[in-house]
Amino acid sequence: MLVGEWAAALPLPAVLIMACVLLIYVIGGALMDAMGFLIISIPIFFPVALALGYDPIWFGIMVCIVTSMGAITPPVGVNAFIVKSLDPELGFGDIFRGVGYFMLPYLACILLLLAIPELVLFVL
């Protein structure tokens, strides 16, 4: 709760603070398993999102999107190892080159949902 109050009191726009939080999720998702990182980080960053005025459902969806992006991002990209185990003859260079095509749509989706959170919440 203290981290959320501290983040809300920063003299920065809420969207910039949330972009930093999402960047941390991309890095964390790239370096370790998404579920483990979520269990570690949600108690820290969920109060921050609430203190900044973001909807909990929006935050949950954004975290899922960003950690799934992290799971295919080099240098570790946990899902790349799964693909490698399915086809041992395939090199990691080929895997990460193939994954590269998905980075731009991921970034576009994240930026769009960060700029217009109502797109996630229009169903509610």
Q: What report would you give on this structure?
A:
This protein is mainly α and 124 residues long. It has one domain (2-117). Helices cover 77% and strands 0% of the residues. The chain is built from seven helices and no strands. It has helices spanning 2-9, 14-31, 34-51, 56-70, 78-86, 92-115, 118-121. Helix 1 (2-9) crosses helix 3 (34-51) and helix 2 runs parallel beside helix 4. The radius of gyration is 16 Å and the shape is elongated.
- What is the 3D shape? elongated
* Unreliable parts: none
Q: What structural class should be given to the helix and strand makeup?
A: mainly alpha
How much β-strand is present in the residues? Answer: under 5%
Q: Would you report the number of β strands?
A: 0
Report how far the terminal alpha carbons are from each other: 27 Å
Number of domains: 1
Helix content: over 70%
What are the secondary-structure elements, in order, as H or E?
A: HHHHHHH
The main pleated sheet reads as: none
Mean pLDDT: 86
